[in-house]
Structure to design on (251 residues):
């Protein structure tokens, strides 16, 4: 059985790790490289770094920071934000990223998924999907949750996989930063309906939420930010607790 993964997410704004609630109310947290090194030592399986304003500002992700991260940590990490071309994805991989994550650019140019997958393989590309539930329907958002992408969650996730996405990183915007738990029913539907791993994001508040998203949501990985950034949950202790609950994680 493939081990479930615990993935801290570091949202980066102007070179500083930040955190918000429902994608707003942003506050500074700390240095992304030092935080990444700490999480690696704590037992994180991977890291995700997202340049949260890159798409909105129409610029590429942080090359210099990616080089620092690659030199400073020893676990795989994914970089996302503002990747609009194969050349930009190639540059980030050359600077040391293990995977790239695309969101807005995939929605606006779905063929970009095909291009990256064709050159590097599906294992190098994560398609991130931010969505909000309204009247029982899941509406996809773009540009950091600011705009309606005019796509429905499940059909877009299926298309992304067909085009070559190796993983889907799903964030429930309504759960993001609330610590009220993951959107497990929706994550379960994605996990059961897609041929690739699903990373669950948005809503982690306690260790039981991680157990729920693995057991009830069938997620392959759980991504969280504030509970790790604030020291409320130790990754090392969380993984030991999950192991005691017969959830397969790497200790």
């Amino acid at each position: 059985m493939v081990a479930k993964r615990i993935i801290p997410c570091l949202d980066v704004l102007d070179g500083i790790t930040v955190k918000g609630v429902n994608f707003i109310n942003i506050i500074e947290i700390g240095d992304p490289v030092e935080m990444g090194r700490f999480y690696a030592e704590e037992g994180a399986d991977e890291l995700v770094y997202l340049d949260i304003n890159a798409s909105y500002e129409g610029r590429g992700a942080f090359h210099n920071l990616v080089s620092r991260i690659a030199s400073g940590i020893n676990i795989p990490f994914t970089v996302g934000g503002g990747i609009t071309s194969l050349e930009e994805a190639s540059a980030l991989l050359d600077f040391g990223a293990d995977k790239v994550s695309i969101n807005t650019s995939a929605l606006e140019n779905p063929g970009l998924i095909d291009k990256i997958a064709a050159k590097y393989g599906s294992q190098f590309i994560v398609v991130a999907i931010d969505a909000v539930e309204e009247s029982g329907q899941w509406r996809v958002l773009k540009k950091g949750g600011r705009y309606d992408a005019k796509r429905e969650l499940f059909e877009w996730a299926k298309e992304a996989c067909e085009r070559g996405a190796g993983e889907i990183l799903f964030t429930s915007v309504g759960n993001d930063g609330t610590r009220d738990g993951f959107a497990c029913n929706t994550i379960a539907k994605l996990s059961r309906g897609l041929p690739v791993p699903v990373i669950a994001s948005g809503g982690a508040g306690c260790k039981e939420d991680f157990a729920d998203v693995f057991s009830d949501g069938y997620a392959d990985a759980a991504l969280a930010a504030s509970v790790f950034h604030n020291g409320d949950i130790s990754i090392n202790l969380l993984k030991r607790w999950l192991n005691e609950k017969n959830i397969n994680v790497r200790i």
Notes: DSSP finds eleven helices and twelve strands in the chain. The chain has a mean pLDDT of 92. Residues 5-244 form a domain with the TIM Barrel fold (CATH 3.20.20.70). Residues 161 and 171 are 17 Å apart (CA to CA).
